[in-house]
Structure formats: C-alpha cells, structure tokens
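User: Design a sequence. Structure:
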C-alpha cells in the first residue's frame, strides 16, 4: 500500500530573527508546500497557531506534545530553593546572554544563589561563553559550566529550579524532563512553555533579564512547604499529560486514521 506523508513540525515562530537563514528559507518553502502532506503534527499549540498565521494551510493539522519516560520518583524535600540549572546547546535561540544577566541580578539580591549550565558549548574553555559571563558582570566561577552531559538525570537531581531563557521554542523538552524529576521551572513565555509549567513555576517575557531575575528571586523566596508543593505539582503534571505511552498512542491513532 501507499504510506501517507505526514509532517512533524517541532519549532514555533516566536522569534524568526534567531533562526539561521537556511531555517527561515525552509519555513518559507514549506509554507508553499503545506497543502501536500496528508497531515501535519505540531508538537505545540503555539506552533500550530503561528504557522497558520504565517500561511501554512493543511486541513488535517493536530497538536501532539512530546512524550517522556518517567523517572522513578524521588523523595521531595521541603526546603528553600537556591540552585538554578539551565540546559541546552549554546545557541542564540537559547539566549544565554539573558540568562547570565539575570543570574547576575539575582545574585546581587541573593548572594546564596547558585547556577549550573549544561549543554554543548557551555564549558569554561568556550571564549564566547566566557565573554557573555564577563559582560553580564559575573565572576568566572559564578556559573558552574558543565558542558555536554550524557546522562541528564544527575543534573536534574543536582538543581532546585530549572531555568529557561529561550527566545523561541516549540515544545521545550527540558522543561518537561525537569518537571518529571519534580523540579519547578522559571521560564520565558516561548512555545508551549507556559502551558507545560502551569502552576509549577514562573513565566516571564523573553529577552528580559530583570523579569527573569525577578522570577528567580520569587522562587528563592518561596516558603519550604510551598516549594515542596510546587515540586509535587511539577511531577504530577508530566505524569498526567506527557507519559511516553500516552503520547505514543496519540501518534499511532493519528497515523492509522489516515487514508492510504
């Protein structure tokens, strides 16, 4: 038989200026071809809306979020959160400039704050990273630059709050992954980040270091019992909505429903 062609769109259009020329070109070409596939699966509601506004036309478009294997639940402890972690490759879309500036502001208000960064290029030997850290007013050792990590479980367990400073996302995997480990989130309002986080964190506008720092400070000011409750909400939300079995069934149902 003939297998239907189905597109899977995994990027929103929050900030096209942060994309490479080739990506922007591909987005325009795909717009012209968007009626051809049998269906289009977007991994975020925002991506579906933005691509539709940009001119993508396919009557069989759905949203299916990303799915995750749930780690074994760890004991959640009531405490005052102090360690912020950010994870993602060193790329303009991730906007580490905003993260480092926010870290400097938060650190000036809360000297006991701690910061960790993991991802390709985020190591002390990267001159571009060192330059951003310096221009933000941070000491060279103010952020623990972990570089690329093969197993992220230990990273998530080593932090209290996940931070995301991106200018654009679709479905930011790192948010749901951290929440599956019972970690609340401080994030910019990109892609479906706000919908994923819900009451398990704080959402601020992108490219605004002061807003991001303010959210970090709010997180540090949480009473221990409120932080614990937010941790439990984070885990519960990912279990309820983003378990891999649930998402796999949605993909299977959509593909099987196509004529062919």
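Assistant: Done.
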């Amino acid at each position: 038989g003939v297998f239907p062609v189905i597109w899977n769109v995994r990027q929103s259009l929050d900030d096209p200026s942060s994309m490479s020329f080739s990506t922007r070109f591909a987005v325009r070409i795909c717009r012209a071809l968007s009626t051809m596939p049998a269906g289009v699966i977007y991994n975020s509601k925002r991506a579906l809306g933005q691509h539709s506004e940009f001119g993508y036309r396919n009557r069989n478009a759905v949203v299916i979020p990303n799915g995750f294997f749930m780690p074994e639940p760890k004991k959640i402890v009531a405490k005052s959160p102090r360690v912020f972690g950010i994870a993602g490759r060193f790329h303009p879309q991730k906007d580490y400039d905003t993260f480092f500036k926010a870290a400097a502001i938060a650190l000036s208000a809360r000297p006991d704050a701690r910061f960790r960064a993991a991802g390709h290029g985020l190591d002390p030997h990267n001159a571009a990273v060192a330059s951003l850290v310096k221009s933000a007013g941070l000491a060279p050792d103010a952020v623990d630059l972990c570089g690329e990590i093969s197993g992220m479980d230990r990273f998530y367990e080593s932090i209290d709050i996940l931070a995301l400073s991106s200018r654009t996302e679709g479905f930011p995997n790192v948010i749901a992954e951290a929440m599956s480990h019972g970690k609340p989130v401080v994030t910019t309002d990109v892609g479906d980040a706000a919908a994923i986080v819900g009451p398990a964190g704080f959402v601020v506008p992108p490219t605004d270091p002061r807003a991001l720092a303010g959210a970090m400070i709010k997180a540090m000011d949480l009473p221990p019992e409120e932080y614990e409750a937010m941790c439990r909400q984070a885990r519960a939300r990912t279990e309820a909505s983003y378990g891999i079995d649930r998402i796999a069934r949605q993909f299977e149902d959509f593909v099987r429903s196509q004529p062919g």
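The chain has a mean pLDDT of 96. Residues 224-241 form the longest helix (18 residues).
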